[in-house]
Amino acid sequence: MVRECDVLIIGAGPAGLTSALYSARAKMDTVLVDKSNPGGQIAITHEVANYPGSPNDTGPKLIEKMVDQAKQFGAEIIRDCILSVDFSGDIKIVKSQENEYHAKAVIIATGANPRKIGCPGENKLIGKGVSYCATCDADFFTDLEVFVIGGGDTAVEEGMYLTKFARKVTVVHRRDELRAAKSIQEKAFKNEKIHFMWDTVVNEIKGDGIVESIVFENRKTNEVTEYFADEEDGTFGVFPFVGYTPNSSLFEGLFEMDWGYIKTDDNMKTNIEGVYAAGDIRIKSLRQVVTATADGAIAAVQAEKYIEDKFKEE
Predict the structure, then answer these.
(1) Of the residues 32, 104, 121, 286, which has the fewest C-beta atoms closer than 10 A?
(2) Do 2-114+244-309 and 123-240 agree at the fold level?
(3) 40 exposed, middle or buried (CB, 10 Å; 0-12, 13-18, 19+)?
């Protein structure tokens, strides 16, 4: 079946849902497609404390509100898996398992996923002590201990940020020296709250509903040790920062990219006319719900202007 529309949005995280809201509210025929349920990364976040106006919402609750609001203005949300895209013509053609979509403009909001450690217990304890966002969750670990996994710029910078909340931050790195920039390393080594575990990997994260212990292995000595939460604390934080994987494989060769992230200008325009990118999929300095929604709003407004100008004679 061919579904024609004004704006097709690929990806139903905060950026995509905001695009759908703004696009539909502008009276454009709007279709949002995602292979999974709406939400993206935020859907597995236990509590969202830094989104303006929603200090006590869980991730799923916030997404539920976004979905309802987009639908209220007429956006159609379809669960479908995109297989291929053709952005060469004025009408953009997107093929999926179920349909073929013909759109005047396309907004890509497929996001990026944090790269995981890959150890037992990690997935089970996401949001229960395991977090991939210090800015989002640092305050939940006030006066507790925290382990940061990784040795690059992000890991060390986020480790320093966590020292504002945690009483002790231990950076666990698989090598005997950090990969972070020297200037960042110097600041970290001067911070009395930061400690380091060298040549160490995480074998397992344990806990019954909350992180209670973590199993380390020294790569040089092969010694295995298990660290247990302080009895008074009952838990501690584990923050893996070993990189992100942008969900952009479908668009390889089409856009200007950097490590898989799509390059846009400030108006979310890509190098292809009529195609926009919003949220974590694009090159940006801060990946948060609030910046994703801002991207989505801008992309939808720009798509509306593009359609009015490009197809005004129709």
Answers:
(1) 286
(2) yes
(3) buried
pTM of the entire predicted model: 0.81
Tokens of 298: 């801008």
Domain 123-240 classification at class level? alpha beta
Nearest to 160 by CA among 142, 137, 184: 184
Catalytic hit among 57, 137, 280, 295: 137
CATH code for the domain defined by 2-114+244-309: 3.50.50.60
Q: In which residue ranges of the chain is pLDDT below 70?
A: 44-47, 313-314
Q: Of 111, 116, 99, 77, whose CA–CA distance to 251 is shortest?
A: 111
Residue found by looking up tokens 């509306």 in the block: 304
* pLDDT for position 48: 77
Let me know if 5 is a catalytic residue.
no
The dihedral of CA 40, 44, 48, 54: what is its sign? positive
User: How much is the pLDDT for 311?
Assistant: 92
Domain positions in the chain are 2-114+244-309, 123-240
Catalytic annotation on 176? no
Q: Which pLDDT does position 313 carry in this prediction?
A: 59
Q: What are phi and psi of 232, to 5 degrees?
A: -70, -35
**What sign has the CA pseudo-torsion 188, 190, 192, 196?**
positive
User: Locate tokens 């801060």: which residue?
Assistant: 286
CA–CA separation, 266 and 95 (whole Å): 28
Phi/psi at 16 (5° precision): -65, -40
* Contact by Cβ (8 Å): 293, 15: yes
| Tokens coding 142 | 């006030």
Tell me phi and psi for residue 69, to 5 degrees.
-70, -40
pLDDT digits (tens, 9 = 90+) for 151-195: 998 899 999 999 999 999 999 999 999 999 899 999 999 999 999
Instruction: Find the catalytic residue in 57, 133, 280, 295.
Output: 133
Q: Which of 5, 57, 136, 295 is catalytic?
A: 136
- Label residue 268 left, alpha or beta by phi (over 0 means left) and psi (-120 to 50 means alpha): left
